[in-house]
């Protein structure tokens, strides 16, 4: 091995290590030729501000909150540039109802952060929590707990052993119509309390075999125990075409669809609406054991989040399917899944195989090859982007990344917040210190951006690398040349650069890390083949720049 080859390998290793130690937060990877162009709405938990970031991780807009407020969970950008946010007080001591995901207040704020409307439901009997869904008509669907005493629960057939904490909080969904700046009316509601079945006590109401009542929820399902926040609905989505609502019930490891075409009175019964099933569940999927059907092999969901219909692009083959982040499908990793319920519009019903709703499995499932890189036991989100890419937030890791249809990772971002405080580039962040409930990207053509100032205004993180994105974006412009060959690729311990027919002399060569850091640059005055030693460089992806960036090629090293 020549001294030059040894020197190149040493330099590559040294720079790779120093760079990986530096870039720990904010943008850590971008391939600008493949990522979907847009702006990312991010509302990190345990702090006060809602941010809109460009794909370089630069702030283009902020909706600041008072320091005493915290995100309920997330926010939604509207067509007029306003946002609808969930929030709660930072002080939780003495709250009559409080658990993870607790909110309490929903606000609409203008682009300039002027308060346009506010609604609060947080008292001794009810509390808003987790998700909301702005509707096309301007109303907002909200999830709320409603407290029931142990005596009420037992009188309804609850096993007394499952109310050891003295009360339970079954969920309800309310549709709120805004009026003025703080006026509102509840125009529709649905209560889980109205759709229970139990086979514990034949002398109590709602007695029956759960497998015979698929539209009702087993009040004593064994997987829940004595938790107050019982079903714990953590996501809600609306389908305008079907006038249906889907929710995630993570404690049951299920998703449920409810008919929204009912009146409030019908929603309290098992009749009415297009489905003729009232407020009973018209579809449930993920864990048929909850209603006494199927086996362990039939369970497909595990404490899932962010269930929603895919509606970004009608030309997408996944349009109309359901997307979900499957948090606890394995102790060591999470997955993202798409599924397509089988719906018959003639009978306005979802189809089953026996007692189990179709499909029998996911239509698509994604697991990181480096599986632990996407492992979040709580929160998290997934978004199918208009160009066919998929944006995934592994929330407990505060890590968001974008993959192409071929599963190539083309954008990565780590939420630069540490236990509620802004972090500095290079900081080490532990699991759960930068919890991020959800991240959503809005395209450059989103109507709410018309006339808005979207110029970069710095970064969330302290000590940012301001030149990194520009370098990375330029590296994303991969080109090929018939005059220069780079092989083998993937490479093991060496790779070769060969000048074909001596057409283009090799004048210089540079090697970059996947995140755009220059790790070697050498000048050459030769033709033919040049061999470079890679034995001391960690496995991974790199970029090779040839002849002053006129040619870029990706290099994968696999030891």
Features:
single chain; 559 residues; mainly beta; Immunoglobulin-like; Neuraminidase; 2 domains; five-stranded antiparallel sheet; four-stranded antiparallel sheet; 4 helices; 42 strands; globular; disordered N terminus
Produce the secondary structure layout:
Blueprint: H1 3-22, E1 26-30, E2 38-42, E3 50-54, E4 59-63, E5 69-77, E6 83-89, E7 105-109, E8 115-120, E9 126-134, E10 140-146, E11 148-149, H2 150-155, E12 167-168, E13 171-179, E14 183-191, E15 196-197, E16 217-218, E17 235-239, E18 244-249, E19 254-259, H3 264-267, E20 281-285, E21 305-309, E22 322-326, E23 335-339, E24 343-344, E25 349-350, E26 352-353, E27 356-357, E28 364-366, E29 381-384, E30 390-394, E31 399-403, E32 409-414, E33 417-418, E34 421-422, E35 439-443, H4 468-475, E36 484-487, E37 494-499, E38 506-513, E39 518-526, E40 529-533, E41 540-546, E42 551-557
Question: What fraction, in percent, of the residue positions are helical?
Answer: under 10%
CATH structural fold name of the largest domain:
Neuraminidase
Give the mean pLDDT.
Answer: 89
Q: Which architecture of the largest domain per CATH?
A: 6 Propeller
List low-pLDDT spans: 1-21
CATH class of the largest domain: Mainly Beta
Number of strands: 42
The separation of the N and C termini measures 18 Å
What percentage of the residues does DSSP assign to strands (E)?
35-45%
CATH superfamily of the largest domain: TolB, C-terminal domain
